[in-house]
Amino acid sequence: MEKQDYQPIEDYGIIGDLNSVALVSKRGSIDFMCFPDFDSPTVFAAILDKDQGGYFNIHPLLEDIKHKQLYLPETNVLLTRFLSEEGISEITDFMPEEETYGGKEIIRRVSCIKGEIRFKIACCPRFNYARSPHTLVQISENTVLFSSLGDDKLVLRLQSSIPLQYRQNDVYTEFTLKAGDIAYFLLEQVDKDHPDMGNLAAFVEKSLVDNINFWRKWMTNCTYRGRWLEMVYRSALVLKLMISHRHGSMVAAPTFGLPEEIGGIRNWDYRYTWIRDASFSVYALINLGFKKEAAAFMQWVEKQCDDIDDAGYLGLMYTLDGRKDLAETELEHLEGYKHSKPVRIGNGAYNQIQLDIYGELLDSVYLYDKHVEPISYRFWQNLSRQVDWVCNNWHLEDEGIWEVRGGKRQFLYSRLMCWVAIDRAMRIAQLHSFPLPPRWQKERDTIFQTIHTEFWDEELQSFVQYKGAKTVDAATLLMPLIRFISPTDPQWLSTLRRIEQELVSDSLVYRYRPNEEVEGLTGGEGTFSMCTFWYVECLARSGQIDKATLYFDKMLGFANHLGLFAEQLGVRGEHLGNFPQAFTHLGLISAAISLNKKLNRLNDKNNN
Q1: Which residues, given as ranges, of the chain have pLDDT below 70?
Q2: Alpha-carbon dihedral angle through residues 589, 227, 78, 20, given to the nearest 10 degrees
Q3: For 368-396, what is each residue's pLDDT tens digit?
Q4: Cβ count near 547 (within 10 Å)
Q5: CATH architecture of the domain with residue range 9-209
Q6: What CATH code would you report for 229-607?
Q7: Residue ranges of the Trehalase-like N-terminal domain (predicted)?
Q8: Residues with Cβ < 8 Å from 204, sequence gap 6 or more?
Q9: How crowded is residue 299: how many other Cβ atoms within 10 Å of its Cβ?
Q10: In angstroms, rounded to a whole number, what is the distance separating the alpha carbons of residues 564 and 67?
Q11: Cα(430)–Cα(436) distance, integer angstroms
Q12: What is the CA radius of gyration of the chain?
């Protein structure tokens, strides 16, 4: 492969087919793609190893190029534009979505807008996380087959409207387009005997129209009409791309191995369904009017509950198809993004105890039951067993929301979400007149009292991160958001001030101050974008509307050129961690909805 440079994480856009996602750089290179599913091995992973990872690059051979990227409005069709005094060209990238086309295809449509432009294409797949060799067979002047020699046995076909040349099992071709000319490229998973597409140009043009119509029709379901509409729409489109059409589950992010600190070791695999992340997503989707996706996730959750014979065995994360075994390994042959090693696949946190997941799950079920569709009694019986387990075990130590690897503690957030689990279960039971064990209220109220007595520090005048701690945690920002405490309660306002003193840098929020003893890890990380949006929402609900609006607008300014966010932001505003991050985008949606309501009420008050 030809040498490539590492592009900033924020220099990428994403396309997807509701089974998988590809990252496309502003320079026209697909540098990351797991295929054909989110949790499949990579075919392209140059973002994790620029020399060995593999990529699919199309780029004009022009001097002094300016690169621009944009989405067609209300779609996930990505346009990458190249502007030079010599000419203007663009690549239209998209993946025909699963609902219409069955997925498993990438389409790249290259057009010359002005001038006469020479292009170079390099299609260099590296199968099975760049661990398996492959062969190339040229079927015709315009068609080649890439076949993995590894256990995956994946076969990809590249078809083009221009003649293809290759060397060393990779495609390298140059071609020229004049103003008005278009070249087509289709990369798809096929059987070896699969027939050619036939009229490639006609297929691409029809697929493009169908794809645009699909996304715009989907967006008509969105009921949000408030401020920051474009950013909310983009976040909704991002969340949709991370939902598996086949299973109804949702990945936390479509990538793995992107570092929380350049050169650091916090490089995790997020291509799985966290009960926590997905449950928060249900809240965001319901609030935007996307009930179909919320229902699909609930059906997936109900299946997991059926699969769990004994209460308390709810996993904190699952594979897309519901399995629990996510054994963590390291890809030692990959150098990592900007030499950030190790590159991990799988996630060793899957077997941790995290008590908060019961609260997040029950809260999402409560919202679904209230706003979408009543749950079945059988589902309720399964959930009731989980609530009984919480009543017996809420006092246990666990690894907490941030999945620390330094040992278990009694974390405030875990205790708080155990309260939510019982409280929401009681509300569901009361709504449907389901059997309501008397013990539930007793345990819920006991948890409430312990939070106020055991996690409140009189000296700090704040709720603290864990029992006996002298530190605060940004997860505490959820206390008023899940209605445990009033957003104007003096104890909460005092806690909010302490969080501002210790964790807020300008408008950006750290999730906590790194502590190697607690975390079991060395190194640092950036500010946590999701926590910043929680902070904005807390400010809005406490009546600090001007401050909340200012910080929200500033935070939106850190989005990349397409409105996308990674997990974290560095000190210079660089994006860090896996990209894009569902948690960040659902946090944006929630903050926008909350702040918009407050501003509307303020305007109504001023106008009366």
Answers
A1: 1-3, 102-103, 192-197, 308-310, 403-406, 514-524
A2: 10
A3: 999 999 999 999 998 999 999 999 999 99
A4: 15
A5: Distorted Sandwich (2.70)
A6: 1.50.10.10
A7: 5-142
A8: 107, 109, 184, 186
A9: 13
A10: 17
A11: 8
A12: 25
Q: Read off the tokens for 52.
A: 């060995």
**Tens digit of each residue's pLDDT (9 = 90 or more) over 545-581:** 999 999 999 999 999 999 999 999 998 899 999 999 9
Neighbours of 392 (CB within 10 A): 13
Q: Taking the CB of residue 582, how many other CB atoms lie within 10 A of it?
A: 29
* pLDDT computed for residue 406 by the predictor: 60
Residue 69 Cα distances to 28, 96, 120, 445, 564, angstroms: 9, 20, 19, 53, 12
| b/e sequence 164-182, b meaning 16+ C-beta within 10 Å | bebeeebbbbebebeeebe
Alpha carbon distances (Å) from 59 to 28, 186, 266: 6, 16, 33
The pLDDT value given to residue 522: 46
Give the per-residue pLDDT at 192: 54
Asked if 387 and 362 touch (Cβ cutoff 8 Å), the reply is yes
| Residue located via tokens 């020479």 | 118
Distance separating alpha carbons of residues 513 and 54, to the nearest angstrom: 37
Yes or no: say if 284 and 232 are a contact pair by the CB < 8 Å rule: no
Instruction: Assess contact for 36 and 20: CB atoms under 8 A.
Output: yes
* 216 residue type, one letter: R
Q: Is the pTM of the predicted complex or chain greater than 0.85?
A: yes
**9-209 and 229-607 share one CATH topology?**
no
- Single out the residue of 61, 57, 74, 80 nearest to residue 11, CA to CA: 80
Cβ(498)–Cβ(464) below 8 Å: no
For the chain, give every domain's residue range: 9-209, 229-607
Query: C-alpha distances in angstroms, 517 versus 342, 477, 514, 520?
Result: 21, 23, 9, 6
**How many angstroms separate the CA atoms of 299 and 288, rounded?**
19
